[in-house]
């Protein structure tokens, strides 16, 4: 069945093509458009499911070796022989030219042929399932949410195109295909953020997203060039196996691997909204809410994590870049979390929450726990998609009101939304046994116990504080939205929020249009599905502290499933799945002989090791960290309840007391203003300067030459007119004047004279006749 | 006396029968000279016309004289001269009609028929 995975990206593309091309011509009904879109994604999901099953769990499973669709593949870019100019294996030979040795780079023997083929391996299978599965829920939700919008067909055409691009991104078997998908999702993100293109803020947000992403794509593209120059191939299999043979560049060594990793990291920062390229994601909330859920929470923004994990061999060869990834992740996590505390727009809170959670994922990758990073991608996709769709449901029920200050006590009106949102809230706060707990706890544990980079304790500390903030602001969101007093007096329609101008009034809800209402079944059914996933989805990565130190469950355990993709810096091998002790290399080292077997590099103070030495048990240590993370989560929730339920005026009191901090957070630390001042305005200045150069210098040169031509033509014209013509006139006039008195004397005008001449002529003629005859 | 008379009459008859060509030619030449002199010297356009007629008639007289001479001597075709003369008279009549029309038109425009005043062709 896994032989049919090439259908998975094609089906949403076909659906998008049908909707996009014929939807308008033939005026498809909403039912038909929704049916085509949902049907194509559902089919893709089913194929993914069966493909992954037959790949990993059936009798003749291929796992863990990757499966590449060689049969249906074709050579997309037959680039031919390339010169490997970088890297250890760059084949160069020394020939002598005129007795001088000359080093010549040999063309790569096999040549560079970039295939269009799909790869099914542990990593891409997870992403396929998440993208199509969560995507399916969101598509179903969107059929209800987008009901009555003009451009319904357009929305689903873009969404289908997005699904195709995202699946190409995660299923491609080489870097170039990943880049195609990368740009494709960027384009669809642009189109969908700007879905309400007649609203200025949406149009600006879409441009901002697109341009910010270009900065990241620039780094990514350079990294792809470097990969091809170094390894002579863009195929993951070749690159990964060659890169494994390179020496590890420790802290302070900056070599080829670090350069490649830097480029990849810049790309990942742009796509996954890491500081300082995070600015586009909160603005991207101008798009319709299903778009925010699918693209800006669950799938597209995790593409950076996918890339990091896909190239984990390269990253793990550069300790410096691992540290950079971890620090950027930790900083983004706390940075965005503190902004989330003070935002009032429900979608803005969720957007900053997404940035913060993505920071957690980067943090996980930075400390070497790529598997846990992907685990968090998965759980985050469940609970954040759930919460975004829940927010969409709230916005729908509140008649396009997004300001949480005008909500409150919605649990009375929207029970389904409330209870499903509750699951998402508990998951993101990290309450056991909801999915977010397992992944976030594992991230913090890996940060504290990492041996790959120094400063693990700092990363852990920052992450823990960020987790507290997360619990706090999510509780705030719950309290302001679903609990407390009703704050929608007058129940008047707000005309200023999402797409109201284009939207027809909900005809079916008109009779009770002034109070919040529960959303239709097509909207709360996906919420229920996602709520179940957000609740139990974490058990695939259950912490080893609960299972006696082993990753139980065989291939069903995400750690075992993903491990073959991850390179182990200690053993210099790829991890083996299903062997608990080989997989948790860091754990093993600590328990067995962390003194005798020195780790790959000395990383200084290690928090987990220090505690462990006091407690003499690794499991106990892990329990300590689990307790800490539960306590901080509980603390955050309690604080939120205190501020927004028990004594609601406390929030204002503290906001006044910490006014500078509050202002900084409320204004998003003035990052937008800073970029506006430094980058945007300078770019505009540059553009103006270039324009001035163009209009003054370039146009000036052109116009100047025209002026010069006119000048010279005037000079030559006058020369011709006065000098040449004058000479001609003067000479001819002189001659005529000289000759004319003589000639005109003959013309007397007297007829008699002429007659005399005739007579004389006659006489002469007669005389000649006579003389001749003589 | 009578004989003398008769002699003279016979001579005259002989002169009529066989006229002397040279006399006609002299008269014709005189007419031509008078005509040419008239054309060259007179200023009145009508007089010039008349002078031209004199020239034409001088030519006619020549033709007639030679025709009679040829008839007398019996050589050539005597009628050719007569036919030429008739032609010339016809052409002269036509020419006189057109010429007098021109003179009248000229007079209406310029109020003069004096040729030295008709000098527009002068530079």
Would you summarize the structure shown here?
The complex is a heterodimer of chains A (about 775) and B (about 120). With about 775 residues, chain A is mainly alpha-helical. Chain A has helices at about 5-25, 30-55, 120-145, 150-170, 175-195, 200-230, 235-245, 255-270, 280-285, 290-300, 305-310, 310-315, 320-340, 345-365, 370-395, 415-430, 435-450, 455-480, 520-535, 545, 560, 580-585, 585-595, 605-615, 620-645, 650-655, 660-665, 670-745, 750-774, and strands spanning about 65-70, 75-80, 90-95, 100-105, 110-115, 120, 565-570, 575.
List its traits:
heterodimer; A: 774 residues; mainly alpha; two-stranded antiparallel ribbon; two-stranded antiparallel sheet; B: mainly alpha; Helix Hairpins; 0% strand; elongated
Can you describe what's shown?
The complex is a heterodimer of chains A (774) and B (123). Chain A has 29 helices and 8 strands. Chain A has helices spanning 7-25, 30-56, 122-145, 152-171, 175-193, 200-231, 236-243, 256-271, 280-283, 289-298, 303-310, 312-316, 319-342, 346-366, 370-397, 415-429, 435-448, 456-481, 521-536, 544-547, 558-562, 580-583, 585-593, 607-615, 618-646, 650-657, 659-666, 671-746, 751-773, and strands at residues 67-68, 74-80, 92-97, 100-105, 112-116, 119-120, 567-568, 573-574. Chain A is mainly α. A two-stranded antiparallel sheet of chain A has the order 1-6. Chain A is elongated and about 160 Å long. Among the domains of chain A are: 74-114, no CATH class; 671-773. Chain B is mainly α and 123 residues long. Chain B has one domain: Helix Hairpins, CATH 1.10.287. Chain B contains 4 helices and no strands. Chain B has helices at residues 2-17, 21-41, 45-73, 79-110. In chain B, helix 2 packs antiparallel against helix 3 and helix 3 runs antiparallel to helix 4. Chain B is elongated and about 65 Å long. The A-B interface holds A 740, 744, 747-752, 755-756, 759 and B 36, 39-41, 43, 48, 115-116, 118-123.
């Amino acid at each position: 069945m896994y032989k049919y995975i090439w259908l998975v990206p094609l089906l949403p593309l076909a659906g998008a093509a049908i909707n996009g091309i014929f939807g308008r011509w033939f005026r498809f009904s909403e039912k038909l458009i929704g049916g085509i879109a949902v049907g194509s994604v559902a089919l893709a999901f089913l194929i993914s499911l069966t493909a992954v099953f037959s790949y990993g769990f059936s009798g003749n499973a291929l796992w863990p070796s990757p499966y590449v669709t060689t049969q249906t593949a074709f050579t997309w870019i037959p680039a031919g022989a390339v010169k490997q100019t970088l890297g250890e294996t760059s084949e160069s030979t020394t020939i002598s030219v005129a007795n001088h040795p000359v080093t010549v780079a040999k063309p790569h023997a096999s040549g560079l042929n970039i295939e269009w083929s799909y790869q099914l391996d542990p990593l891409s299978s997870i992403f396929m399932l998440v993208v199509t599965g969560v995507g399916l829920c969101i598509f179903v939700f969107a059929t209800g949410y987008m009901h009555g919008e003009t451009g319904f067909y357009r929305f689903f055409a873009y969404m289908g195109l997005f699904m195709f691009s995202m699946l190409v991104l995660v299923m491609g078997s080489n870097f170039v295909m990943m880049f195609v998908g990368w740009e494709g999702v960027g384009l669809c993100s642009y189109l969908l953020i700007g879905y309400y293109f007649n609203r200025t803020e949406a149009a600006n947000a879409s441009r901002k997203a697109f341009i910010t992403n270009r900065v990241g794509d620039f780094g990514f593209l350079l990294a792809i060039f470097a990969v091809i120059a170094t390894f002579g191939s863009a195929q993951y299999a070749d690159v990964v196996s060659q890169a494994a043979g390179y020496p590890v560049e420790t802290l302070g060594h900056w070599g080829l691997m670090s350069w490649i990793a830097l480029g990849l990291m810049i790309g990942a920062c742009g796509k996954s909204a890491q500081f300082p390229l995070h600015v586009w994601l909160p603005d991207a909330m101008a798009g319709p809410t299903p778009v925010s859920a699918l693209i800006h929470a669950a799938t597209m923004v995790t593409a950076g994590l996918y890339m990091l994990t896909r190239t984990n061999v390269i990253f793990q060869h550069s300790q410096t870049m691992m540290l950079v990834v971890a620090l950027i992740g930790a900083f983004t996590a706390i940075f965005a979390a503190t902004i989330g505390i003070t935002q009032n727009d429900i979608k803005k809170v969720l957007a900053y929450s997404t940035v913060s959670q993505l920071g957690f994922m980067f943090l996980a990758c930075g400390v070497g726990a790529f598997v846990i990073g992907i685990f968090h991608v998965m759980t985050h996709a469940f609970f954040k998609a759930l919460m975004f769709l829940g927010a969409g449901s709230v916005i729908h029920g509140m008649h396009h009101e997004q300001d949480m200050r005008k909500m409150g006590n919605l649990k009375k009106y929207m029970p389904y939304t409330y209870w499903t949102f509750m699951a998402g809230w508990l998951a993101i706060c990290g309450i056991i046994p909801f999915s977010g707990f397992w992944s976030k706890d594992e991230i913090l544990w890996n940060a504290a116990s990492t041996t790959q980079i120094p400063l693990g304790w700092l990363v852990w500390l920052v992450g823990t504080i960020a987790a507290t903030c997360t619990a706090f602001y999510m509780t705030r969101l719950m309290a302001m939205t679903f609990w407390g007093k009703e704050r929608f007096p007058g129940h008047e329609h707000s005309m200023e929020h999402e797409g109201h101008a284009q939207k027809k009034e909900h005809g079916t809800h008109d009779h009770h249009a002034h109070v919040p209402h529960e959303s239709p079944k097509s909207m709360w059914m996906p919420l229920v599905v996602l709520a179940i996933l957000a609740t139990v989805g974490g058990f695939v990565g259950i912490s080893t502290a609960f299972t006696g130190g082993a990753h139980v469950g065989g291939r069903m355990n995400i750690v075992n499933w993903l491990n073959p993709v991850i390179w182990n810096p200690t053993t210099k091998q790829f991890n083996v799945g299903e062997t608990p002790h080989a997989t948790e290399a860091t754990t093993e080292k600590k328990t067995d002989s962390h003194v005798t077997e020195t780790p790959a590099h000395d990383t200084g103070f290690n928090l987990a090791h220090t505690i462990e030495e006091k407690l003499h048990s690794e499991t106990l240590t892990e329990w300590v960290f689990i307790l800490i993370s539960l306590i901080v989560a509980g603390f955050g929730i309690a604080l939120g309840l205190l501020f927004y339920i028990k004594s609601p005026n406390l929030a204002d009191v503290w906001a006044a007391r910490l006014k500078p901090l509050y202002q900084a957070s409320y204004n998003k630390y003035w990052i937008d203003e800073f970029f506006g001042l430094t980058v945007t305005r300078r770019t505009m200045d540059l553009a103006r300067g270039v324009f001035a150069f163009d209009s003054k210098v370039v146009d000036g040169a052109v116009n100047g030459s025209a002026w010069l031509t006119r000048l010279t033509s005037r000079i030559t014209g006058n020369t011709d007119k006065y000098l040449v013509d004058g000479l001609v006139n003067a000479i001819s006039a002189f001659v005529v004047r000289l000759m004319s008195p003589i000639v005109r004397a003959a013309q007397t005008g007297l007829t008699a004279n002429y007659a005399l001449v005739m007579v004389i002529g006659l006489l002469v003629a007669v005389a000649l006749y006579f003389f001749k005859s003589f | 006396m009578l004989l003398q008379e008769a002699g003279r009459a016979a001579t005259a008859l002989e002169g009529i029968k066989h006229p002397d060509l040279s006399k006609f030619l002299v008269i014709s030449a005189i007419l031509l000279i008078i005509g040419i002199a008239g054309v060259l010297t007179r200023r009145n356009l009508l007089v010039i016309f008349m002078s031209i007629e004199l020239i034409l008639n001088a030519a006619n007289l020549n033709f007639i004289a030679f025709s009679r001479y040829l008839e007398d001597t019996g050589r050539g075709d005597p009628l050719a001269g007569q036919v030429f003369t008739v032609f010339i008279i016809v052409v002269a009549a036509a020419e006189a009609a057109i010429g007098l029309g021109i003179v009248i038109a000229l007079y209406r425009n310029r109020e003069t028929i004096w040729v030295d005043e008709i000098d527009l062709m002068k530079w």
